[in-house]
């Protein structure tokens, strides 16, 4: 597993990569004779409540498809950050996989549950070589992380991926602040306007993926572009004037299908950093189609860097 580290203090950003290789294997390769323990972390409020409804319809098929070879545990979240606690407990109890059921928010919490105090959470009941896999059944509003792999919002396809039990190495980004706390991301970390847009978008999920566009337009109200200092991989500090949004991509998509970091690859051990400068709300509207198609890197006031 590779860690791309981002340190953000006020309007100063430091970005570097740390590499920790982990060999891919199969979930059941070391103990194929026993049933796998799978924990499904479900956010019933995802996609404006659609996730919970779809999950209830899916459970009978899930049990018929996996019930003979797996021990299935269903954990329903009750509020923000609950998925983090569920995941940590599952890993400590030796789960073979923790599978996020929902959108990118649920996946984000589950990913953070794999770590504690800057270190991976480990099983307390199984051998030291045992590791818990991360899985995903995309049933959220955006499901942007799944787009990078070309996965559809088809839960039956997702269950088949879980049934195959294949693991692969993937990168994870980590943000550390002045207090040395750690916050992990597997998709795209964003700063300034795009972060505010994500906050406002949560109010409009009834509009589907359009909620992110509405959220961005609302975020522009009262927004001021600001200068930032950025450092890449312990290089010199660089001043980046009038930053509208800074996006650090481990994968390609955010905001309901915007291909914001089109060259990012979660297997590359590198992060892609895209900076939007001096944007106004009308620039966002006029260039929206380029943001969705991933052709915005050629636009004036958009810069791209991979480290």
TrEMBL record:
Record keywords: ATP-binding, Kinase, Nucleotide-binding, Transferase
The keyword Repeat belongs to this UniProt entry's keyword annotation: no
All residue ranges annotated as the DAGKc domain in the record: 33-179
Cellular component GO terms, alphabetical: membrane
One term of GO molecular function: kinase activity
GO biological process: sphingolipid metabolic process
Name the UniProt record assigns to this protein: DAGKc domain-containing protein
């Amino acid at each position: 597993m590779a860690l791309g580290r981002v340190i953000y203090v006020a309007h100063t950003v430091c970005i570097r990569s740390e590499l920790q290789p982990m060999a891919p294997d199969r979930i059941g390769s070391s103990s194929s004779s026993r049933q796998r323990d799978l924990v499904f972390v479900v956010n019933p409020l995802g996609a404006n409540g659609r996730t919970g409804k779809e999950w209830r319809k899916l459970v009978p098929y899930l049990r018929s498809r996996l019930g003979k070879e797996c021990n299935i545990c269903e954990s329903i979240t009750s509020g923000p950050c609950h998925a983090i606690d569920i995941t940590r407990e599952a890993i400590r109890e030796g789960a073979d996989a923790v599978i996020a059921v929902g959108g990118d928010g649920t996946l984000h919490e589950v990913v953070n549950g794999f770590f504690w105090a800057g270190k991976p959470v480990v099983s307390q009941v199984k051998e030291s070589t045992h590791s818990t896999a991360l899985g995903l059944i995309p049933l959220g509003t955006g499901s942007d992380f799944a787009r990078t792999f070309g996965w559809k919002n088809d839960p039956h396809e997702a269950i088949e991926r879980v049934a195959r039990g294949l693991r692969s190495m993937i990168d994870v980004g980590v943000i550390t602040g002045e207090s040395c706390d750690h916050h992990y991301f597997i998709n795209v970390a964003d700063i300034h306007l795009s972060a505010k847009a994500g906050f406002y978008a949560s109010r409009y999920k009834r509009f589907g993926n359009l909620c992110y566009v509405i959220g961005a337009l609302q975020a522009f109200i009262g927004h001021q572009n600001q200068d930032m200092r950025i450092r890449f991989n312990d290089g010199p500090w660089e001043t980046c004037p009038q930053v509208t949004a800074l996006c650090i991509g481990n994968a390609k998509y955010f905001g309901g299908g915007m291909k914001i970091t089109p060259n990012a690859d979660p297997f590359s051990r590198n992060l892609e950093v895209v900076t939007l400068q001096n944007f106004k709300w009308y620039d966002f509207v006029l260039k929206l189609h380029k943001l969705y198609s991933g052709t915005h890197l050629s636009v004036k006031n958009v810069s791209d860097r991979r480290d």
